[in-house]
Amino acid sequence: MDSTPPPSSASPFDMVSSALGQYMPVDGPAAAAGSAGPQGDDAARPDVSDNPPPADQEQILGAVDLDRDLRITRWNLDAPVFAGVEAVAGSPFVGLLPPSDVPTVTRRLRQVLETGEPHVARVQRLRRGDGSELVVSMSILAAAAPHEGLTVSLIAMARRLHLYAAETAIGTSLDIGETAQSLAESLLAWGDVTAVDLDFAVWTGEAVTEQPQGRLRLRRAALVPDRAWPDGYVTPGDDLPGDASRLLSQAIRRDDAAQAIVIPDREAIERVLGSARLVRALTPGDQAAAVACIPLVLDGEPPVVLGVAEVWRRADRPFADSELFDLQELVVRTSHHVDLARQHQREHTQVLALQRRLLPRSAGDTIQTASVYQPATPDSAGVGGDWVNSFPLPDGRTALVVGDVVGHGLGAAATMGQLSMEARALLSAGLTPDEVLEHLDETVSLLDDVESGLAAGYSALGSTCCIAVYDPVSHHVEVASAGHLPPVLVPPDGPAGPVAIRPHPGLGAEFALREPYDVHAFCAPPGSLLALYTDGLVEDPALSIDEGIDRLTDAVSSVHPWDALEQAAQRVVSAVAPTRRRDDVTLLIARMIGYRKEDTTTWRLAARGDAAARARTLVSELLGRWGTREHIRDSVLLVVDELVANAVRFAGGPITVRLIRTGHGLLCEVGDTGNGRPRLGPGGLLDDAGRGLHVVHGLTTRWGVRWTDTGKVVWASFER
Question: Does the CA dihedral 548-553-559-565 come out positive or negative?
Fold first, then answer.
């Protein structure tokens, strides 16, 4: 064996061996032949006489070096506790493991070998030559240069240390599946197969505040080791049969108190389960002869059962009383971790429900949309900051909105929902994109006012938003942005790139920084693609933000006109999104369609007394050519007459009349230069003012007003 390298190039193996040498007498087991521990060069051995171990010092440390083929090259298992663990040079390391653990440990060894990232403190069993097993805490580290391969450090687990390490491992995740898996892996030190079955309410995050009535409804959350299981056996994600759930709940909840139970042999298991179907569902194989069922109990008045942990053993390994005590102690210690994961799951479910509520559903007949949302992490801590929405406006246009709320989690999701709904309401009411952003800016400022009591430790200052409104008749898009990255436009013929909008601070900026929001208008002919996104899609530590936007432009430009937009959006995200995400990824792609020329006509009329009659004549001729039914034509003519007459009377200036044939009906628009808002008043029989709007209200499906740079447009829609 090679001698120990100098301290300046010490490998993890050498450091572990050096630490072990402090507790080894020079003539002790460390000098045994075949061990590659701290032996070799005596000058490299610590002077153990300067640091004598305490008389009751428990020697629990060991190390094994592996080559890239996962074969043992040297080892130091000289502590007495490792007696019987037979390491042999050139043999596979997994030969020290129980056969059922080989696939999982091999996968983790190769993962550390490929990534270099250590895997720390896995509770593991080692086989001794006499068939008994030793429980250890196993850490896997990449060997330090110039060595290649791995160093596996082993700490023999004393009872208290094992409980502490297991509880620490179980509490590292808020994911309910990972928490259950960690518990099952820790319990494997006491058995051959372990499973964790949780009440369905725990899986869904429902409130668990009192003892459930009747039987538990159990779903398998974890099962170890990872191997092929018999047909019919319940595996993770499966619901236990109703009879099995009932039997388990009755067994552990005797006299309304949750208790651990042990079924000592195969004959008793078959007698208790009562049917071959239940035996196949709950028994992990013919060798399983005894099982301990330990309830996961949440402390309270009264206590609440969250589920059941099951530990299975072979016939030659009956459960000792001390082992049952340890099992119950570990499960009791970790039940609160399961409940924390349940609460986290509940928040996660609420946040995702809100996200799904805001995702685009239908953008109308004049535009196609597709969206992708991917949180930075799979738990609720990484959900809630980004949002997209697209929706048809009542006047026939379509709104596309994307926003990025500062932070993540439930607080960010609540703010996101408020801003999204407010933007939709204001746009539907006819406000322009810049006016909507002014209102959102004020909302964020109010939400951050700590004196109002609404902030509760969460600040949305600096949130961003971009709003685009598409007119399917003129094929123009108006965009306004509050601190958001520019949309990417890909026209059917012409250069693609980001839209040139003027930068503006995010929402809620201080008064001194506030400036009027600009509205940038551009043409998007039919077939154009417009991509709105959040910074998580294009921010990559290896690239500048401009390079990220260029990559997005190239990816969107590769979308073929006949590609399905949903699949195309997924491909764009896969091609552009950073490999290691630090933020949510959000993308909204819109394909402009618009109205055909023959489906829309516009007239400009002088504001004279005969304008209403002239409008009726023009509209009647057009509706005749369109083959509109008589009762619809009569309603449209009455509404056009009232709206044009009101424009002449109250507004003046040139009047614009536009008629649009939509997929579901007709849309009539009358524009003027006035700035007064038409209102629907009480309209008594002798009150002439406002009676025309009552006619409009009664004959149309919807009507409303939107504002323009030169005045306003009153629109009215009719169903065919």
Answer: positive
